[in-house]
Amino acid sequence: MAPGELLLLCSISALSLVHGTDTDQDFSWQLKKLPRLVKEKTFSLDTPKFEANPQLELSGVCGIECQRTLPVSHPSDWKDLLSYETVFENGTRTLTEVTVLGAELDPATNATTPKGLSRRKRQVYGTDSRFSISDTRFLTNYPFNTAVKISTGCSGVLISPKHVLTAAHCVHDGKDYVKGSKKLRVGLLRLKSKGNGKRRRGARRSKREQPEAEEYSADVKPLKQQSSSRMGRRQKASGQNEGKLERKPSFQWTRVKSTNIPKGWLRGVAGDVAVDYDYAVLELKRPHKKKYMDLGISPATKGLPGSMIHFSGYDADRPGQLVYRFCSISDESSDLFYQYCDAESGSTGSGIYLRLKEPSNKKWKRRIIAVYSGHQWVDVNGEQQDYNVAVRITPLKYAQICLWIHGNNEDCAQG
After folding, report:
1. Which segments constitute the Peptidase S1 domain (predicted)?
2. Average pLDDT score over residue span 337-360
3. Which of 126, 139, 128, 113 is nearest to 338 (CA)?
């Protein structure tokens, strides 16, 4: 779909929010004091075999009906669930045990909040609501340039100058690390430099894209002004320069230095893979220079403008293309979002984000609030049913990911 069509459709979506009842609410990021995860001990583990087959679709996991019967995790379980494994690029592996301090038991239950939910198949049906972002004016600018490709076939999102958030099952099946994860790589889209300085100037423009829109609008709306401002320059440019502007970007692959996975994901702890802990953080061997997206604690659906979420990833049926989509949340539990955005394999691990106001200056800011775990099949009353799920970033998970990024909890007091 062309960029103009993307802008038109998203602008219509924005108007429905600006003039609808959602504007009566104060959609702001709610700052919360985070629990502290303190490292206790780190043990060396045997070298993993790296023999598991990548599975882009999970089966036999706890679905929507199953979630309604689950109790909320108890503080006595948090140490086991939030301790974590780290595997390094040389194949060595460690287990770090943590103590959780200052956490409060969430009074909410895991019971979902039905909203007339109907089962729908995840594979694209009817009108394909996805948008391929091919224009480099969008593709190489924030927020789309935060999406990355993982060499095992998944997607991810940049959350620091050296860290990528993705789904745990993209690198680990619950028992062993998947094939290829020992030499894991992350692909970042870049424009090929031909010595004319275009890419460097583009990078500086990306860094200057700090001010956000003053009111909620479609995610790509801030890029519309950028597109218009460049139109005059494009009309005056020579045919040679126009060709350079339209050249296709390519992946620059960076090795992964280490991978962190919560112990709650391991089958030995949960008995089966626990979708609630289907997230992992990859530390890059070399820092990138792109603008990354900050984490945010996932609000309840009623705290989302229009109940809408956004994410971009590299769907397998559109090779080499970044695919963007947005849709509303259909259901939720304390740890999971359920939605039916059109998505194909390869988009798993994408960072789900939204835009809310910063309490300090009331400007809109994007934050990652969940990880797209993907399409999953579950047994419901003897029948196989499917749905889409995203792992919400709760205060405990935020504190853990923050610890992975900074190496200590001193910089993780508030989320």
Report:
1. 140-230
2. 87
3. 113
Q: Considering the chain, what percentage of its residues have pLDDT values greater than 90?
A: 38
84 closest CA partner among 141, 127, 41? 41
Strands (E), 79-162: 84-88, 93-101, 131-133, 147-150, 155-158
pTM for the model:
0.79
Work out the pLDDT band at 300, boundaries 50, 70, 90.
confident
DSSP state of 88: E
Say what percent of the chain tops pLDDT 70.
65
pLDDT at 162 over 90: yes
> In sequence order, what are the beta bridge partners of 253?
187
- Tell me which residue range forms the domain holding 132: 3-224+238-406
409/356 Cα distance (integer angstroms): 25
Q: Tell me whether residue 261 is in a domain.
A: yes
CA neighbor of 399 nearest in space, from 390, 384, 410? 410
Q: Is residue 412 part of a domain?
A: no
pLDDT at residue 359, as a whole number: 81
Residue 259 lies in a domain: yes
**With bands split at pLDDT 50, 70 and 90, how would you rate the model's confidence at 274?**
confident
Our separate counts of H helices and E strands in the chain read 9, 17
Which of residues 314 and 208 earns the better pLDDT score? 314
Kindly report the CATH number assigned to the domain that includes residue 398.
2.40.10.10
Give the dihedral sign, CA 220/225/226/231: positive
- Phi, psi angle pair for 168, to nearest 5°: -60, -40
Backbone angles phi, psi at 250, to 5 degrees: -135, 160
Over residues 302-317, the pLDDT tens digits come to 877 777 899 999 998 8
Structural domain includes residue 230 = no
With a CB cutoff of 8 Å and minimum separation 6, the contacts of 209 are 141, 142, 222, 226, 291
Distance between CA 407 and CA 338 in Å, rounded? Answer: 32
Pairing of strands 336-339, 383-392: antiparallel
Q: How many domains does the chain have?
A: 1
Q: What is the DSSP letter of 129?
A: -
